[in-house]
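Budget justification aside, the reviewers requested a transparent look at the raw inputs and outputs of the sequence design task funded under Objective 1. We therefore reproduce one unedited record. The lines immediately below are the structure tokens for a 187-residue chain.
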């Protein structure tokens, strides 16, 4: 497994890197069969250290966790606990409700745009109905079942996930509703 352990304006020493690799290996060995790589980023926010971890699983899904603490090791340990809980739930769901995916998730290319929000101090009509594109990027749309899409959304901590439905071969959306439930859009 490949590790990328970095710090944003923080020096990540050899001892911390060894601790991260040892703990992630132990935790991932319990739940994830063949994780491909892990990215761990440490940063500082005021007086707290922040640890963000992303683990790419061999099934194509990503597990993401983020934690804050006053000590850098405590921030990583809290992040590792969150990841452990997510992967335990993921494995239980796979075992209980879904068949194991035999092939990796197929990804399709798509364009992603960021539109400027127009902050208008007047109650006038906008000058143009065409939005201003601030950024244009490439993104990947995974080919998943609805259950896998919900798991991916929860593992990554996303509010919305656009995916290609394996069963119906169309683009679908799952999202977290304000009442805590999951919504599914199947056009």
């Amino acid at each position: 497994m490949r590790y990328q352990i970095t710090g944003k304006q923080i020096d990540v020493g050899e001892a911390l890197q060894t601790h991260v690799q040892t703990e992630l290996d132990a935790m991932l060995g319990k739940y994830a069969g063949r994780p491909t790589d892990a990215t761990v980023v440490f940063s500082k926010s005021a007086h707290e250290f922040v640890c963000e971890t992303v683990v790419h699983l061999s099934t194509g899904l990503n597990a993401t966790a983020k934690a804050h603490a006053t000590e850098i090791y405590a921030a990583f340990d809290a992040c590792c606990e969150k990841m452990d809980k997510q992967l335990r739930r993921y494995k239980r769901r796979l075992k209980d409700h879904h068949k194991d995916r035999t092939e990796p998730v197929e990804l399709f290319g798509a364009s992603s745009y960021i539109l400027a929000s127009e902050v208008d101090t007047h109650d006038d009509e906008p000058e143009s109905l065409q939005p201003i594109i601030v950024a244009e990027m490439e993104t990947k749309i995974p080919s998943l079942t609805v259950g896998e899409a919900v798991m991916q959304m929860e593992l990554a901590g996303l509010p919305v996930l656009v995916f290609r439905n394996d069963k119906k071969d169309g683009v679908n959306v799952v999202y977290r509703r304000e009442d805590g439930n999951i919504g599914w859009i199947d056009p």
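Residues 72-97 form the longest helix (26 residues). The mean pLDDT is 80. Computational costs for records of this kind are itemized in the attached budget.
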